[in-house]
Amino acid sequence: MNWLMVIAGAIIGAPLRYLTDRAVQARHDTVFPWGTFSVNIAACAGLGFLTAAATATTVPTELQHLIGPGLCATLSTYSTFSFESLRLAEAGAKYFAAANALVSIVAGLGTAYLTTALATAVFG
What we know:
The chain is built from 5 helices and no strands. It has helices at residues 2-26, 34-56, 61-75, 78-90, 94-123. Helix 1 (2-26) packs parallel to helix 3 (61-75), helix 2 (34-56) packs antiparallel against helix 3 and helix 2 runs parallel beside helix 5. The protein is mainly α.
């Protein structure tokens, strides 16, 4: 049953990642990959909240698999983040590449920390 929940989450997460990435990037006239940054931060928020909620209270295993490795794992994309950072550096936008790498890591960790703290406060 768990693998079915992962698949169900992935069916939602993968197209949501693509559509969100395209929608966000279309609204920004810059080489910085705002779309990928946005979906990665959203996935960090979801995983941080889910982790703390599952620790503080009873979250059904099926729901954990649906949201965690299903939805959030397919919503985020380390490979695209890496590829876009490399492309920026190769295109001569080294500051954007460095900013993408640094800001993505710091913001992702910060978001996971904050949403973990939020879920802990909510669920005690």
